[in-house]
Amino acid sequence: MINSGAGLTTGASSSSSSIQSAYNNPASGPLLLSDTEKWRMSYLPVMSVNMELGQVDNFSEDLNELTDIVDNPDSTSDNPTQVLNRFNKVLVEMGESGYIKNNVSFNAPLLPLYYRIDSSSVIGVGVKVGSQTGLRLLDDSLSFDSQNGSFSTASVIYIKNGIETEAAVSYSRSIFKISEGGSTNNQLYAGAKLKLINLRLSKQVFPLQQLDDSNVEDLVWDEYDNNLNSSTNIGLDLGIVWDSDLFRLGLVLENINSPEFSYGSIGQDCSKFAENTHSRNTCEAAAYFINNKGDIKGKEVHTKVSMFRFDGLAKLTNRWALSMALDISEYNDLVGFDNRWLNIATTYERKGNIFSSLRLGYQKNLAGTSTSSAMLGLTFFSLVSLDLEYGLQSIKVDGSKYPRRLGISLSVEESF
After folding, report:
1. Which of 369, 376, 324 is nearest to 355 (CA)?
2. Domain total of the chain
3. Would 239 be classed as within a structural domain?
4. Tell me: the pLDDT tens digits for 39-77?
5. Digit-coded pLDDT (tens) for 185-224
């Protein structure tokens, strides 16, 4: 799931001001509560949304134009040779770099919640729901039948979708401290988080020749239900944090047990569907890209691989901090994209009546699509946080430039 609240800007770091930081590192619980506090929680659901586009200019427009030409060759004034020359090049580019990916994430109301058991121990609970969808093109050549005057291609739109529901319980405590002059300014914290994870995973293949503006949305949802597979597993995270007056260092091992979840199968036993039906055609199209081209798998297992993440925080003043988070290893998201994120951010706590906190951040995917973004976050009245993401790479659509990544997160939680 994408980072939520102020975490959209600060990344998966042990933030000095956001309750979401303890969800990233299960050892951070005691850092959220002062000695006189017993509990802390988020107030309203935290909402985060972002979208990423592949490095293909006019991707959607070219795709729509191609489907129109395949459906009605008279919709273009170009001759067949011009159409073939143009779109066979476009199809290859789309297959290599064209995609659309979006993420949506919500926290349940009042959660995460952290409760102090004793002077050194904190227990936390949280529930998050996230959805991820990835769309890309599996390309095959475009051909022209001169006798019928028609174009045809085996190219398909390939959509993967995952809905993840996670309920988690964490325990964290101080395990070592250095006292200086009666204070405890240097402490090592350790924590563990047990997660119950349910994934509803689906894959869909739609031949371009069967798509039109009137039925594509219905086909997506119909096929989503047909190919849906729901599975539940347990995940375990471990974390440590060293906190001092000047800095904070954290290390997390996520999904130490590498839980596995199965996708709904596609392209299997197509004869069970009646001939010349949508289900039969999509099944055979998927089988072609599975068996003939080897581009996709008919049966697929998604593994939340065990991975390390390092995070750090430098306390420059009582109000100003620099933070960073780095995924030490790569991992696949729900829709099959490679990820390894670096995030660098700075936070200034104004403690003002209106603008109480300002955040600036930068993130880059060190694997896969190699996209990067700049982030800006503001907290109002020490309560409402609005964080925005703007991609640093761009694509062109009808001559205008648009960022490849856009994101927004809104949270209502008590600052500290």
Report:
1. 376
2. 1
3. yes
4. 888 888 889 999 999 998 888 888 888 888 988 898 888
5. 789 999 999 999 999 999 989 898 877 654 555 666 666 6
DSSP helix/strand/coil, 325: strand
CA 113 to CA 330: how far, in whole Å? Answer: 30
CB 219 within 8 A of CB 206: yes
- Per the listing, tokens 């036993």 go with 269
Question: H/E element holding 386?
Answer: strand 384-391
Cβ(229)–Cβ(201) below 8 Å: yes
Give pTM, 2 decimals: 0.91
Determine, yes or no, domain membership for 378: no
Per-residue b or e along 91-128, where b marks 16 or more CB atoms closer than 10 Å to that residue's CB: bebbbebbbebbbbbbbbeebbbbbbeeeeebbbbbbb
Task: Name which of 186-200, 201-215, 307-321, 326-340 the model is least confident about.
Answer: 201-215
Q: Is the dihedral of CA 57, 60, 65, 71 positive or negative?
A: positive
Copy the structure tokens of residue 66. 């191609």
CA atoms within 13 A on the CB side of 155: 27
Token pair of 17 as six digits: 């001001």
Q: With cut-offs at 50, 70 and 90, classify the pLDDT of residue 310.
A: very high
Q: Which two tokens stand for residue 281?
A: 């055609």
317 part of a folded domain: no
| Cβ–Cβ < 8 Å for 391, 373 | yes
Q: Which residues contact 63 (CB under 8 A, 6 or more apart)?
A: 94, 98, 137, 157, 208
Residue type at position 239: G
CA dist., res. 250 & res. 311, Å (int): 5
Residue numbers of the domain that contains 208: 18-264+300-307
Q: How far apart are CA 21 and CA 172, in angstroms?
A: 13
> Residue 235: inside a domain, yes or no?
yes
pLDDT band for position 105 (50/70/90)? very high
